[in-house]
Amino acid sequence: MSDVRKLIGEALSEIIDSAAHGGPRVRVGLQANGSEHGSEEIANAARLAQRQNPSIQVVMIGPKKVEGFDDLEWIETNDCEIDLEKAMDDAMDSGKVAGIVAMHHPFPMGVTTIGRVFTPACGRDMIVASTTGTSAINRVEAMIRNAVYGIAVAKSIGKQNPTVGILNVEGAQVVFKALRKLKENGYDIAFGESKRADGGSVLRGNDILQGVVDVCVCDTLTGNVLMKMFSSFSTGGSYEALGWGYGPSAGEGWKHVVNIISRASGAPVIANAVAYCGAAAAGKLPELVAKEVEAAKGCGLEEIIASFMPKPAAAEEEVKAPAAEPTDEEIHGVDVLAIEDAVRELWKHGIYAESSMGCTGPVVKLNKSKEEEARKILAAASYI
After folding, report:
1. What is the CATH number of domain 1-99?
2. How far apart are the C-alpha atoms of 27 and 33, rounded to whole Å?
3. For 260, how many CA atoms within 13 A lie in the half-sphere containing its CB?
4. Range 258-285 average pLDDT
5. Of 350, 352, 341, nearest to 378 (Cα)?
6. How far are the Cα atoms of 5, 98, 151, 283, 345 from residue 157, in angstroms, in the given order?
7. I need a surface site. Which of 79, 289, 366, 381 has the fewest CB within 10 A?
8. Three-state DSSP class for 222?
9. Cα distances (Å, whole numbers) of residue 90 to 26, 86, 99, 256
10. What does the alpha-carbon distance between residue 228 and residue 346 come to, in Å, rounded to a whole number?
11. How many CA atoms lie within 13 A of 210 on its CB side?
């Protein structure tokens, strides 16, 4: 009988809590220790998150190292990383929480996190795909997959037709060509546009400061640096004060919503990360990732990735340059990693060309009279 009363009591408590907050609350677990700013900073962030987002219930997970926070719900553990990780996984597996916010989680290969920053020029939020974990070992492949995961995360938090741009890092032009091919095959992707005079969907630093797209695609290491710069540029670096943290986990077949924060994240960022996690979980992120991956694969994702992987034999082939001639024209859009191979490709067809670096990236310089033919050659070889 006591068990029945307990169940009835819990059910009534949930009904009362739901009525008080305008509907069911999303339960988000929060790692209770490990911050460079102390455990009290984390507990204060939990209170802040609940105050700012009445639809969220924070569940602290970890050793209880602070006094005066009995108003928060706790799942207490020993001060041991293995016990903490087990408690967080158990809480997600059992449904006690819809997702967790943690400073570390052992993601498998193929799973990455999708961050979110506050862009200072226009006060917009922007998703950064990705910031931790690894969606693939090869940078180009990883960035292509990051675009798909970034779109899924954007949709999970209510951005139904997110615009996408690619940060101008090594591999960006290849990634853009691959995503453009995916779009041509029917995958629903909306490319954003640079605010620079020459436009395009490959973004410069000016663009990300303005937040010109909803989803900025980059490799994980660059994304991680961006997160740190955007979140702590006004504090000197030791305290992350702005943004939503390093974001929820996404990957093919991955079922959990695990948002990562830094040990340098302050209460405002942690509170935002809790809200970000709750929104992604309520938006059924794992299901959206599966849906986006299925749609992309249906449009040839795997085949497109394979077609854009490096072709090492081309670089090793010995090709002599034709007789030099004036180079008064430039061809843009060749990735920096493939620029020398692109030049050799033209040499093989008797067209003299040189590689150079313009203000927007690498260019192939050649005689204007050969431009049309050269473009056809480079397009056929997938350099542009």
Report:
1. 3.40.50
2. 19
3. 20
4. 98
5. 341
6. 38, 15, 10, 6, 45
7. 79
8. helix
9. 17, 6, 11, 11
10. 42
11. 13
CA 102 to mean position of chain CA atoms: 17
The rounded mean pLDDT for the chain is 91
What's this model's pTM, rounded to 2 decimal places? Answer: 0.82
Residues 100/277, Cβ–Cβ less than 8 Å: yes
**Would you state the pLDDT for residue 284?**
98
Q: What is the domain class of 329-381 according to CATH? A: alpha beta
Position 15 pLDDT exceeds 50: no
Q: How far apart are CA 258 and CA 343, in angstroms?
A: 45
Domain ranges of the chain: 1-99, 111-308, 329-381
d(CA 289, CA 224): 21
Quote the tokens at residue 96.
């006690």
Residue 347 three-state SS: helix
Beta strand pairing status for 329-331 and 215-217? unpaired
In three-state secondary structure terms, 102 is strand
**Measured distance CA(175)–CA(206) in Å, rounded:** 20
Average the pLDDT over 362-372 and give the result: 91
The maximal CA–CA distance of the chain, rounded, in angstroms, is 95
pLDDT per position as a tens digit, 176-229: 999 999 999 999 999 999 998 888 999 999 999 999 999 999 999 999 999 999
Other CB atoms within 10 A of residue 205 CB: 10
DSSP for 28-67? EEEE-S--TT-HHHHHHHHHHHHHH-TTEEEEEEE----S
By annotation, the residues acting in catalysis are 359
Residue 20 has pLDDT above 60, yes or no: no
The per-residue pLDDT for 323 is: 92
What is the edge-to-edge ordering of all strands in the sheet holding 353-358? 329-331, 361-366, 353-358
CA torsion sign, 210 to 214 to 219 to 224?
positive
Which helix or strand (DSSP H or E) is residue 13 part of?
A: helix 2-20
* 3-state secondary structure at position 330: strand
Helix, strand, coil shares of the chain, percent, nearest 5, are 45, 20, 40
> Residue 12 above 60 pLDDT?
no
Question: How far is the C-alpha of 7 from the C-alpha of 1, rounded, in Å?
Answer: 10
- Mean pLDDT over residues 137-161, rounded? 96
